[in-house]
Amino acid sequence: MTRLLVIADDLSGACDVGVKFASKGVSILVANQMISGPPVWPADYQVVVVNTESRHLRADEAAQRVRTCVEQAIENRVSHFYKKTDSALRGNIGSELEALMIASGCSVLPFMPSFPQLKRTTKDGFQYVNGRLLHETAFARDPLEPITESFIPAIIESQSGIQTTLVNTDQIALAQTSNFKNKGIYILDAVTDEDLRLAGRMLQANNLLAATAGSSGFAEFLSELLGFEKREQRRVPERGRMLVVCGSLNEVSLKQSVKGEAYGFGMVILPQAMLLAADGANTALGRQFIQRIVELAKQQRDVVVSIETTDPSEQQQEDGKQTYRLIVQNLGELTRQVLEQTGFKSLTVFGGDTLLAITRACGWDGLLPQHELLPGVVVSRVADNANAPLLISKAGGFGSEDVLLQIKSLLGSAN
Length: 415
Hints:
The protein is of the alpha/beta class.
């Protein structure tokens, strides 16, 4: 029976939080779209992670999807809820947190956005990345969700009427119930994993784990706090040649994909003319690039597929998000055809929107996270499909420039 529903706003984030439970031996399913109702609720898993696909929606639409998920879970006797948020605070943070509170009936919502392993930290209510205020980092230049604010209460209050309260690490260490005397969202500071661990103990002592929110960082400790039954973990075998698909527009991922060529990966950059065409993967140009990837596979090469980019200002036009949906749809279909024609045994995907497009094109309804290869890099199996490639997912802004070399080495890919 499912005890915990985790709600994520994109698929790579769903895998990223899901693996925190899987690595502890907890049975978990990541659903790559909203579950349609009680008759099909996957009750065989202790934890179900649902991707609401709401990061790029209007705030009211995102809130409605969260409410629907929680209401369906309550009908299926789910007792605990975790709203997974992006550690760079992209998306509809305020409206989705408020929606969780309303639908679950919880008057107090602890929020832990810190992810110290990835150098995303919270201090005095401000979010930092690598020691810099969030709005001063590359996330300020995100083509789809540019970040202009680092003070978390301001981000929440711009989308929500819910009161916010700051809780610093000294207050967390005291574990006082009086910290939570008023209704609202409580933003808990954390600079280290130990801060998150202490926050979890405080919430447990004050019976405040029924509804919580934060990044994947706190999920690491939530698994232990809720006392799930543990199961033996299966070892993920080494797999053969790798296909890498980068559809992320984040400059971190773009640099990582380009760097792959220096490590011996075949490099294929898809042109805008194909990516922006209706059914672009099935045009003559699309078929030409599919054939190029197939030929590289026949040469026993690992292959990186990336996208030709334009100036970010052009991507931020009023139809930018709709344009990007077309790009990732074409990437999804192209990837499906490449996998059908080649023997790639592992598939690495940069970006949650790209991951979702590929899973839908391939008909993969659910994922089973296995373990974390690197911080923020998750290995999953496709549910109910033994022939699918091993799936490695990474959100756009994570990792060092040599992340592909690290992934290849850790998976045991041969040269």
